[in-house]
From TrEMBL:
Annotated protein name in UniProt: Putative cytochrome P450
TM regions (residue ranges): none
Any Pfam family matching the protein: p450
Entry-linked InterPro entries: Cyt_P450, Cyt_P450_B, Cyt_P450_CS, Cyt_P450_sf
Signal sequence coordinates: none
UniProt keyword annotations, A-Z: Heme, Iron, Metal-binding, Monooxygenase, Oxidoreductase
Organism: Novosphingobium sediminis
Family named by the database record: Belongs to the cytochrome P450 family.
Xref: PROSITE patterns: CYTOCHROME_P450
Gene Ontology molecular function: heme binding; iron ion binding; monooxygenase activity; oxidoreductase activity, acting on paired donors, with incorporation or reduction of molecular oxygen
Amino acid sequence: MQHVNHELSPMACPHALADVDLFAPGAAEHWYEAYAILHAEAPVLRLPGEGLTPERDAFILSKYEDIARVVRDWDRYPPTLSLLLEARKADPASVRAMPDIDAMVKSIATLRPNPELWRAHRQQLTDPWVGPGAKRHEAMITGHVDALIDRWIAGETFDFVADFARPLPQRTMADVLGFPLEDVKDLEIWGNAQVMSYVHGCGHNNVLTPEQSAEKFRLLAGFSDYVRTHVRARRANPGEDMISFLTQVHYEALDRKLTDDEIDGIVYAMVIGGLETTQYALVEQAQLLIERTGLFAKLKADRALIRPFTEEGMRLRSPTQGLSTRITSQDEIFHGVHVPAGSTLHLRWGAANIDPDEFDDPLDLKLDRSAVTRHLAFSAGPRVCPGSGLSRLEQTIAWNRLCDRLASLDYAPGNTFLHQPGIMLGTLALHCTFEPETTA
């Protein structure tokens, strides 16, 4: 999905620490120059007064070692959301009643408020569909990849974003959940609403204006109505899709069936996580491939290289660059910087994944890099992305079929390579030329 704000002007490339602002308009065009400065001069950068309350600070972590330590320790660095849930533990109904709490947060309050239930939620409810069990979708994804290629293969140019990378995860997620493909356009609108905070929100906390927030929840009310209609239908007449499974499963961790609200929240999470990461990963991988002479031919000749190519692509150009998702439960020291208890931590995965202290030649794409999956593009620890299996499968199938059906891929004239605002590395458009593979 793409969200264009034509009022934004590109930010100047930073040359010193004083120039670094990861959240300013146009900052995405120079994130990686900023990361080099942070690594060298301020691996822990204080944001005064930008914590959860005005008297608290936030801190940007840009080193792999620090971020890996944080994401693997829920108790010491609890998720920001857990503070909200703890505050309402004495009155569970208040979470449900709050108008500015979305469906996913409501379901987290009952289904996965702690590490044990988070793990059980993933293992029983999502792993069979978008985690290790994603292989069940191989034929379906292959069909969608071929159908999208068929739309432009007879031409001379196409937009890799609009014509391939964006619709592929939309169509895939619709099929996984059991939504008709003709509803994909509506799903795109609702998906845009779900990520509005992360695109148009202000600062590292992604704060929307009251008007933006009202529009977001107006749109999401329509999504909830849509999901509930499907949930009611599947309770009465289940099929072979994920929503049907969720309506019928006896959730062992809580020894009961799921409520409609909980299913709504799970579906919300599937859409918000299932569309963006895969789209942005594919688009950045296309650019990495085009910019490296001979790489496409190498992948065509040896398909075993496609998996390390996609992993290196996600490491080099992380789809989600960073989020403020953790709080310090006690005083901490990161790289010599004192971080008081109660501080917000902005985890900058994009910077960690090119940390020169962690990766040899971090800006090189190495198909033979050892432990190629150890990047943090999907985070790590108890809250690792539950849909990483599906995303990885989509990427692998996409590049296998593109290698089958294209003899070459290159840039068409006129690309600006500009990115959407927010915290995701989203190229707005990528116009490409190609030669079809005559033996495909």
